[in-house]
């Protein structure tokens, strides 16, 4: 009996322990073998490219440890005021790589002012590697030309590659010809030339693939840091100008009469008192800007009398990082009337400009690509951003035109007649007109093409929420989305009068009005808004393309002409039974039916 009791006690104890263990395990997970490895203190640090130039008298040994070198950035290398026939001024020039990245460089002698007649009789000699110069070393094989010739060519006096910590020394010598006559007495070259070292990345350091990622880094540029240096570089027709610092002292119009690229990640602004045009591009030439900000001074209270950039028949290309901003009183860009000028935006921005007719004016040809912005501009008249003159064209392939505003017609664009508009991509939104056309007001005989990924939404106006089409304008919609545009707070995409409109595909969610009538043709488009027909007795027909989608419509017509309204098949359309149900008449008491005898859709009382 005692054994049975002991056995029962043991079993009871075991059961209690199992229950307790189960409760303890509830809400936990089972363990697995684990391990970890951490790579700490990973580094992503940009290297630096830093080149310096020093000089020493050429009569000393350039390799001696006690040679006295002077920092070239502190003053002139060549500085003597008693030149005479036979006189020689020779200097060793040391180029050092003081940074952490390998570089390639060139040494140039460039003009900084007017070069006098004296430069005709100053010969330039070059030695590489450097050596202590004697007179017998100044031979013809060492001569690279007269100082006038060298300055005029702005050629490469020396080129080379330097790894971090390396330096290279050359020798330059200037000699006045013994044949120089009395007519050269008392002449001065003054400060009309500079010796400059220009450097950029060398294809040396390796990344995860190879060392060729910077093989195309250009060396054909000139660096400037002031308006006077920029003016000189343009006068010298330097084709690649890099701005190395902020330029706030521009006090005159700079005329571009050759193809040039200006870049550098800096701002150019007007000097106090200067309100005129900043850049004028001559006919047949191209100005390209990249990562440059042109500031008109609006935030400093400047009222401009000139444009930021203007041209009649030149080409303006604004690349990524370029911004034209804050011009108050004149345009950011003027393309002149019927001048044929071209403006291309490749990721550039035209923002915060105000004039009587927006930020851009003219009869030229404008192309706007991905990443570009024409936004936050305004006008004191029509055209919040662009006033298009007859014969011009505007193409948007990407980017955005948002938050522009006009006190007149055309929240973004106001167009004279016979212009062409291609809206292939990008976004146009949140623009506003106090008059007609929250986005645009077109001139007569214009052409509008909407398609691709273009989106037109949330624009508003007192009349015509997005687009107002005027007499004899042709519009084709074969893609894109149009939605949430309003006229006096009510849904409205566009209003028309006496225009030709074809809606092949795309989405139109807003109401719109079609009046007068040169022909409205509708295909396989998603039209969710109500089409309001305001027709004349001579234009009471709309056309349906093959496979048209359904839509709602209302006919605003006198009773005498109401019954004459019809939808007629366009070329290629074949009636399918039930198509009449796709044409939803919003006129009270009427419906659409198919008239087989005339092969048209007509209206009848229900």
Task: Spell out the blueprint of helices and strands.
Blueprint: H1 2-25, E1 51-57, E2 70-71, E3 88-97, E4 103-111, E5 122-127, E6 143-146, H2 147-153, E7 156-162, E8 167-176, E9 193-201, E10 222-224, H3 227-235, E11 240-243, E12 247-250, E13 254-256, E14 260-270, E15 279-281, E16 286-295, E17 309-311, E18 315-318, E19 323-325, E20 333-334, E21 342-345, E22 349-351, E23 354-355, E24 360-362, E25 365-368, E26 373-375, E27 378-379, E28 386-388, E29 393-396, E30 400-402, E31 405-406, E32 413-415, E33 420-423, E34 427-429, E35 432-436, E36 440-441, E37 447-450, E38 455-457, E39 460-463, E40 467-469, E41 474-483, E42 486-487, E43 490-491, E44 494-496, E45 500-508, E46 512-516, E47 519-522, E48 526-527, E49 530-535, E50 541-544, E51 551-556, H4 559-562, E52 566-569, E53 583-585, E54 590-595, E55 600-605
Parallel strand pairs: 10-11, 11-14, 12-14, 13-15, 14-16, 15-17, 16-18, 16-19, 17-20, 18-21, 19-22, 20-24, 21-25, 22-26, 23-27, 24-28, 25-29, 27-31, 28-32, 29-33, 30-34, 31-35, 32-36, 33-37, 34-38, 35-39, 36-40, 37-41, 38-41, 39-42, 40-44, 41-45, 45-47, 45-48, 46-49, 47-50, 49-51, 50-52, 51-53
Antiparallel strand pairs: 1-2, 1-3, 3-8, 4-7, 4-9, 5-6, 5-8, 42-43, 52-55, 54-55
């Amino acid at each position: 009996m005692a054994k049975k009791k002991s056995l029962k006690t043991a079993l009871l104890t075991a059961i209690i322990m199992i229950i307790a263990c189960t409760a303890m395990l509830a809400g936990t997970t089972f363990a697995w073998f684990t391990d970890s490895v951490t790579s700490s203190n990973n580094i992503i640090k940009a290297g630096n490219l830093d080149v310096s130039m020093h000089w020493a008298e050429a009569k000393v040994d350039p390799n001696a440890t006690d040679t006295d070198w002077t920092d070239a950035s502190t003053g002139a290398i060549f500085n003597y005021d008693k030149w005479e026939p036979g006189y020689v001024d020779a200097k060793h020039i040391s180029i050092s790589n003081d940074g952490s990245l390998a570089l390639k460089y060139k040494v140039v002698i460039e003009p900084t002012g007017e070069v006098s007649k004296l430069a005709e009789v100053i010969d330039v000699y070059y030695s590489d590697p450097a050596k202590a110069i004697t007179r017998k070393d100044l031979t013809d094989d060492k001569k690279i030309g007269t100082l006038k010739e060298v300055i005029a060519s702005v050629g490469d006096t020396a080129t080379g590659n330097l790894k971090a910590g390396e330096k290279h020394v050359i020798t330059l010598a200037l000699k006045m010809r013994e044949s120089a006559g009395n007519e050269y007495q008392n002449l001065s070259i003054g400060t009309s030339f500079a010796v400059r070292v220009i450097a950029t990345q060398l294809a040396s350091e390796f990344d995860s693939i190879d060392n060729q990622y910077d093989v195309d880094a250009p060396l054909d540029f000139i660096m400037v840091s002031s308006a006077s240096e920029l003016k000189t570089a343009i006068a010298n027709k330097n084709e690649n100008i890099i701005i190395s610092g902020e330029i706030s002292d521009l006090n005159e119009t700079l005329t571009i009469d050759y193809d040039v690229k200006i870049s550098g990640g800096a701002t150019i602004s007007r000097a106090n008192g200067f309100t005129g045009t900043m850049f004028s591009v001559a006919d047949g030439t191209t100005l390209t800007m990249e990562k440059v900000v042109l500031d008109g001074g609006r935030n400093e209270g400047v009222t401009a009398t000139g444009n930021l950039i203007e041209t009649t028949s030149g080409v303006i290309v604004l690349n990524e990082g370029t911004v034209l901003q804050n011009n108050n009183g004149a345009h950011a860009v003027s393309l002149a009337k019927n001048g044929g000028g071209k403006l291309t935006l490749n990721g550039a921005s035209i923002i915060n400009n105000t004039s009587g007719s927006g930020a851009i004016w003219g009869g030229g040809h404008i192309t706007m690509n991905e990443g570009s912005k024409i936004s936050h501009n305004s006008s004191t008249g029509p055209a919040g951003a662009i006033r298009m003159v007859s014969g011009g064209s505007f193409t948007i392939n990407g980017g955005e035109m948002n938050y522009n505003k006009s006190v007149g017609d055309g929240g973004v664009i106001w167009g004279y007649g016979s212009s062409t508009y291609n809206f292939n991509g990008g976004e146009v939104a949140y623009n506003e007109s106090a008059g007609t056309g929250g986005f645009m007001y077109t001139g007569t005989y214009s052409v509008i093409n909407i398609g691709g990924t273009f989106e037109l939404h949330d624009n508003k106006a007192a009349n015509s929420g997005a687009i107002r089409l005027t007499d004899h304008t042709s519009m084709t919609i074969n893609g894109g989305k149009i939605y949430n545009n309003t006229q006096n707070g009510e849904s409205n995409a566009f209003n028309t009068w006496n225009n030709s409109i074809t809606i092949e595909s795309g989405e139109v969610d807003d109401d719109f009005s079609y009046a007068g009538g040169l022909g409205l043709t509708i295909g396989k488009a998603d039209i969710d808004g109500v089409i309001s027909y305001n027709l004349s007795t001579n234009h009471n027909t709309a056309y349906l393309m093959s496979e048209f989608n359904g839509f709602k419509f209302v006919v605003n017509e006198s009773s005498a002409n109401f019954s004459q309204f019809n939808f007629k098949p366009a070329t290629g359309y074949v009636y399918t039974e039930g198509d009449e149900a796709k044409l939803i008449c919003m006129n009270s008491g009427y419906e659409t039916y198919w008239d087989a005898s005339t092969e048209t859709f007509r209206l009848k009382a229900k």
